[in-house]
Amino acid sequence: MEEESDTRKINNSFLRDHNYATEADIISTVEFNSSGELLATGDKGGRVVVFQREQESKSQPQRRGEYNVYSTFQSHEPEFDYLKSLEIEEKINKIKWLPQQNAAYFLLSTNDKTVKLWKISERDKRPEGYNLKDEDGRIRNPLTITSLRVPVLQPMDLMVEATARRVFSNAHTYHINSISVNSDLQTFISTDDLRVNLWNLEITDRSFNIVDIKPANMEELTEVITSAEFHPQQCHTFAYSSSKGSIRLCDMRQAALCDKHCKYFEEPEDPSTRSFFSEIISSISDVKFSHNGRYLMTRDYLTVKVWDLQMENKPLETYQVHDYLRGKLCSLYENDCIFDKFECVWNGSDSVIMTGSYNNFFRMFDRNTKRDVTLEASRENSKPRAILKPRKVCVGGKRRKDEISVDSLDFSKKILHTTWHPHENIIAVAATNNLYIFQDKVN
Amino acid sequence: MEVSTEAKRIMVVALGKLYSSRAQRGGLRLHRSLLLTLVMKSARDMYHAAQAPTESVASGCEQQQQCSSEITTGPNGAQLDLQVHNSPRTLPQEEVQGSPTELHRDAPARNDAENKENQCPGGPLQLSRKRRGKAAVEPDFLPCKKAKLEQGPCPPQLIVNSVLMDYVNCSSELGAPPTPMPLQRVIAAC
Fold first, then answer.
1. Assembly ipTM
2. Is residue A32 assigned to a domain?
3. Residue A87 domain-assigned?
4. What are residue A153's DSSP bridge partners?
5. Is A183 domain-assigned?
6. Cα distance from N-terminal residue to C-terminal residue, chain A
7. In chain A, positions 93-122, which contact chain B (CB-CB < 8 Å)?
8. Which of A8, A14, A139, A357 is deepest in the core (most CB within 10 A)?
């Protein structure tokens, strides 16, 4: 297992150094499972790679559990919609784990149009000694069988297999941007630009549409849904964010169609910061409930905001992720970076929030101490087990040593996807086609 | 004018992006297309805001008379009406400036002819801004073959038009294509 991860690292550095990195290897989503034992990544090529934390050994206590490849499978393939002459990308947009209920692991993975439920299970025994087949699997000559032989389970090398248990398809006209498993563990929602559909995990041939913001005349369209998530404890509550910078909280008990929100969160725009790009940068790219269910976090292009569910007219806290980009919006618009969708994530205790930026930087904000830090995920600047050095972007004037100026930032290196272990201070950060896992320093 | 140059540039870039997104793998992205349309609208508004105080009534005049031009085009057989958007801000200025108004008013005679034909009912009321979500406007600085959008003259207009129309077609549910009702739309020229 150890060798596998080393090989993967070597392969990655080879690819990076020789610029052979293929687009299919670009990581498009990362997610820890609810115990933190497993970490799943999805990529543009439709593959899912699951890492498992190795058991901590008493003999080497300073070597905390590392994550090694546990299973790799092809979740989605490219498809072609013949009716509309459209290709459907195989890129995995989101992965969500189901809490573990038996020995097998279950996760939902989705591309633009189809959600799949995958079962990942271990096999460490194999039946041997069939009556009618020999060891190679060939049918034995019946004339040579003189006695009954019952197969016996023999141990074998551990094999991890992934099987698609359910395929939830044909429910989305637009592109799926998020999925969320309900706390009831029986239903989940899938969300596209204009609709939210509710599914039962057991039933694949129908879903219920619970939000529909498609206008009768598409030319009157002014906003789209960008993300949706179930409340972590209340199985009847979910929230969805819009491209206009607002969040709506809906209660499924009120009506079958949740077009009427029960709470509407929006901060009035500051007219002094209005520009050509105000609409683009106010579009929310990610929405996440806090673990305790009392707060919502949203990410737009330049900020992360924490909202109190009891206060709708303004956020509780606003954090500037990379405000130095405000003056560069025109260039970022021309090179398409302004359309990047960054995710945001809470730590287990909801005291720290994290989100990505450019130049392989990612930012952490401590909500209690109000301190923030910028770190970099790069091979050159961090050796294994080295402590990450905080980075700083110099905005203008004199650049100090170790600072990097805004114009030197590499906008092709962006950290869009990050995830935090549910209980410990372990984070996984996806930097294009590389996965970085960082842990707290062991004392 | 810095603002108007930047606005122009932003509009042009937006159109380029909208057009190239048609060839993108995975089909047109609704969110991205919507944001680009909104940027174009912002740029258009700022452009007109920048133009209005400096430009004399001439353009205000032309705009007013162009305001009701209707254009039909039918690349897919669908009828689409083009309505050039007028900025009501130019109106008060027109009233203020006396003589230049007279001069310029005579100049584009063909506007009048067309105007009679294509005048929308409601006259001045028509000048009220109708904000359409995904509509873009024809900026007056571009050499548009005004009021005659048949196949040929302004291919970029057709393309943008069909970009937006395609998306509606492609993304509509399985079923009948959009009914051929005349749609009130304004298109940006490139």
1. 0.87
2. yes
3. yes
4. A127
5. no
6. 26
7. 112
8. A357
